[in-house]
Prior knowledge:
Blueprint: E1 4-8, H1 12-23, E2 27-31, E3 45-46, H2 56-78, E4 86-87, E5 91-94, H3 98-112, E6 121-125, H4 126-132, E7 141-145, E8 149-151, H5 153-166, E9 170-172, E10 177-180, E11 186-189, E12 196-197, E13 200-203, H6 209-213, E14 218-220, E15 223-233, E16 245-248, E17 253-258, E18 261-265, H7 280-293, E19 301-312, E20 319-322, E21 329-333, H8 339-354, E22 372-374
Parallel strand pairs: 1-2, 1-13, 2-9, 5-16, 13-21
Antiparallel strand pairs: 3-8, 4-8, 5-7, 6-7, 10-11, 11-12, 14-22, 15-18, 15-19, 17-18, 20-21
Amino acid sequence: MKKKIAVIGGGIVGATASYYLAKAGHSVSVFDSGKGQATAASAGIICPWLSRRRNKKWYRLVSEGAAFYDKLLADLASDGLKTDAYARCGALILGQSVDYLQEVHDRALERREQAPLIGNVAILKGTELKKIFPPLSNVEQALYVGGGARVDGRELTKTLLQATTQYGGTILKETVSLTKDNDGTLSILTPDGPPQRFDAVILAAGAWLPQLLQPLGYTVDVRGQKGQLVVLHQNEDSDPQNYPVIMPQGEIDLLPFGKGKTVIGASHENDKGYDLQPDPSVTDPMLEQALTWLPNLKEAATMAIRVGTRAYTSDFSPFFGSVPGLQNCFAASGLGSSGLTSGPLIGYLLAELAQGKESSLPIEDYPVAAYVKSTGR
């Protein structure tokens, strides 16, 4: 049965959910203000298998999220929407010690038994390293992981929303609020016009979920974290599309996207939360650090500084599923810096839930009720 479904938030979670709902024949309206979206300011490395985190539920989510890209891209291609926003280009992990690289190497081999997507794993030195990434400097050895990938979240989201409209969906650049009846039925309020009711509502507003639900009498365990990245452009001939992404120890990553584009970032600024102003005191040191490894970027022009707000819970765990006390309302948040890895899969699963289907992942492992609580108002 065709449903009328609203999706609040047009980042990677909301855009993926909207695409699959519209593809399934539902009437989809996407509401997105375009403000502070984490997706647009995320570096975009997809290589979750090397994490030291011991949270098995989180690891399962990001590991399956990395694998989900194959389905997502195949589905888009079947709709005539091929995109070069994603590439499985491999990843180079830089470490300050041999012991560190060996530790990560051994972890990757162990996890490859359950995640064959990890691909080839090897510590490269000297000419081997120069062959795979000639411009790389001041690095004696690095761990290569063949299954590492990179994605331009902003471009992929654009493609997903384009696909949504291709299937009859509507994209509305509006800031909305929510109101509910006594039975928990939601209505969406826009700046102009009467309240609108839908058969289901998906809240994919990331760090802005607390602001959406607070007027309905909820507290939400989500905080904002500022992230900034630098987009550089140089001579296209000097930047082949198949360079691997670079993951140094520390905060920043470097992503050569081909066609002369390189992304450096992103910062993790807990004290700046929802501030969306570019800050050279943060981005300039990031660029300086990048030049130690890629001095050829010195002549590159800065195309853009992107700023967004990530969503984190107090225990750094993501959640998704039904919102307690609200009829046919589903939400996701708390994805943090792995949002582009797990976001498409979560969006797909929310679309399944909104259609009354079961999630392929146990949603009790990512409970909304642990982070979204009614104050009884």
